Amino acid sequence: MQIRIQHLEKHYGRYAALRGVDLDIRSGELIALLGPSGSGKTTLLRAIAGLETVDGGRIRFGDRDATTLSVQERRVGFVFQHYALFRHMRVLDNVAFGLDCRPRRDRPARAEIERRALDLLTRVQLADLRDRLPDQLSGGQRQRVALARAMAIDPTVLLLDEPFGALDAKVRVELRRWLREIHDATGYTTVFVTHDQDEALELADRVVVMNAGRIEQIGTPDEIYTQPATPFVFDFVGRSNRLRGRIDQGRFRPDGQTRSWALPEPLADGPAQLFVRPHDLRLDARDDGLDAVVHQVRRRADRHVLSVQVAGQDTPFDLDLPVHADAEVPAPGARLQVGATRYRVFATA
Amino acid sequence: MSAVLDLDTTTNAPPPASRARRVMPGFGLTLGYSVAWLSLIVLIPLAGVFIKTSELGFDGLLRVWTDARVLAALQLSFGTAFVAGAFNALAGTLVAWVLVRYEFPGRRMIDGLIDLPFALPTAVAGIALTALYAGNGWVGQWLTPLGIKVAYAPLGIIVALVFVGLPFVVRTLQPVLAEARVELEEAAATLGATRLQTLRKVLLPTLYPAMLTGFALAFARGVGEYGSVIFIAGNLPRVTEIAPLLIVIKLEEFDYAGATAVAAAMLLLSFVLLFAINLLQAFAARRAGRVR
Q: Which of A23, B1, B188, B211 shows a CA-CA span of 20 to 30 A to A344?
């Protein structure tokens, strides 16, 4: 089902949780809502589900206006971070709950309900545990039951609120891949909320980056990472370094430096900041390198990370050096010239 | 479908209990202390009841226990305590719900008032309730034309027991309701459950164990309640005379063995009933998904 969100507004007292959010979700798409705590991503998800009322704007499911529909009428499959399974019901009864609650006239026979619930449990590989109580399952198993339960009502859209947030790292990665497979097999339009950028980039068709109640950027994972639209996205997604400086005659000159760098795209003169990823920095700079001093060297499994202090800047830079057996790693205190292969410049408001 | 997922079912296995090192030692000491106190405060006095009763001999005991006045008193005490406990289990749950779920002016005040029946001398409660519910009282004058007699009738006893028993249910339910996650109700709603279905299938099953506990506490309190009841009951033998009052009457007649015989009957009945409630409660807790 295609979902269209127009100018959505939500306030809690004087605090604005959503400030005019517009978003089109295509049918069958897997979308990630990514942002820090308080960015409004969960509020947006709950508004789509009907668990929050909105103060302005419209939500459309297909060509139907869903803004004023009740939670029950929207028929969304919602998966909660802490599973929200019914502890007093067997796993099978949890999955069957949505069908059990249908009005008598469109409720399938008991045997049919059980058969469908068991089908879903088989799909999430938990058919063997159908008679267990939720408390007897591990976290990952519980979340799979929750997903099966949400799919049992044949939802218009699947909404997942930090679905892997309560799981440990290994299970989280497994479930992430598995969710992608489930999505591809079922074709449900799916929206999930996360503050984990790896999760968003790896799993989603498109990523919606949110901050302070607004959408900062919507794009494919590649677009979000390589062409961040705003300083916030550059800073929030992936590792980044920031240089303060000025744009002067079409070039960016960092504070405290004499050399300047060309602008990737034209910008008006004035104060500006330059963002660059640690792996886009080079030490083999030609004549436009910035003067810097090595502050610290950290060893990682696959690289060295140099922390360098660029003259005139208040915070040190991180710079990735690939590990080569014969390469010489600069020692702390060494003076360097730092260049960059790829960066973005934003005017400071 | 991916094959990486482990189907590990061994989670939540209890650790071996025997040789586990505890951070807080002292099992022997605390158990010994508990047993010693329990003996001095509870077990020995209770045993005394039975020893004193045994002076009557079997025939004497049977005579007391089959006395119509004693039987009527026991029936009245347990019957009214049961009804009051059941009423409290429902009304108290509602009060607890309102106090936990909603923010409103005066909430803390009302929350504080709940404990008042614990602190108030029960005689004061009895006199106040009698004044209210007597035929010419504030409330009683409206009930009399309807043919409802509260004071000096079994109904009055129930009113008094509801008053003294309410805090037990409210205080038992509050933490459970506070812990009940709103998420569960939201999950039910997204799955299409109506409010009634959510209440019946999701919320109430998690509350039953606590409601039973609250009922048991209110019931036990009601069986033994004396102070508030004797003022409102009228104390007509075989009609509104409760068992604790009968004990006091027998004591005043220096019939100590007879008094303890009634007490012994109350003890045994209470024990059997509370034990049954405990079993039921354990069953309900298991149904509520708390795996031991």
A: A23
Q: Give the CATH number for residue B121.
A: 1.10.3720.10
Cα(B91)–Cα(B169) distance, rounded to whole angstroms?
Answer: 9
Q: What is the pLDDT of residues A39-97, one digit of tens each?
A: 999 999 999 999 999 999 999 999 899 999 999 999 999 999 999 999 889 999 999 99
Indicate the residue of B8, B191, B288 with minimum beta-carbon distance to A153. B191
Cα–Cα distance, A17 to A1 (Å, whole number): 26
B9, B192, B205 member nearest A102 (Cβ): B192
Question: Which of these CATH numbers, 1.10.1660.10, 2.10.70.10, 1.10.340.30, 3.40.50.300, describes A3-232?
Answer: 3.40.50.300
* CATH number for region A241-347: 2.40.50.140
- DSSP lists the bridge partners of residue A242 as A275
Q: How far is CA B238 from CA B70, B234, B248, B249, B265, in A?
A: 8, 11, 15, 14, 17
- A317: burial class by Cβ within 10 Å (0-12, 13-18, 19+)? buried
Residue B74 belongs to domain spanning: 52-287
Alpha-carbon span B79 to B42, nearest angstrom: 25
Flag if A84 and B189 touch (Cβ within 8 Å): no
Rounded Cα–Cα distance for residues B133 and A171 (Å) = 64
- DSSP bridge partners of A159: A78, A191
Residue B251 carries which side chain, given as an amino acid letter?
L
**Cα–Cα distance for residue pair A2/A148, rounded to 1 Å:** 22
Interface of A with B in 236-255 (CB under 8 A): none
* Chain B residues within 8 A of A172 when measuring between CB atoms: none
In this prediction the ipTM stands at 0.85
Q: What is the pTM of this model?
A: 0.80
Phi-psi region of B187 (alpha: psi -120 to 50; beta: other; left: phi over 0): alpha
Please state, in angstroms and rounded to a whole number, the distance separating the CA atoms of residues A263 and B260.
100
User: Do the strands A344-347 and A317-322 form a parallel or antiparallel pair, or are they unpaired?
Assistant: unpaired
Probe site for chain B from A51, A86, A125, A147 (most B CB atoms < 10 A): A86
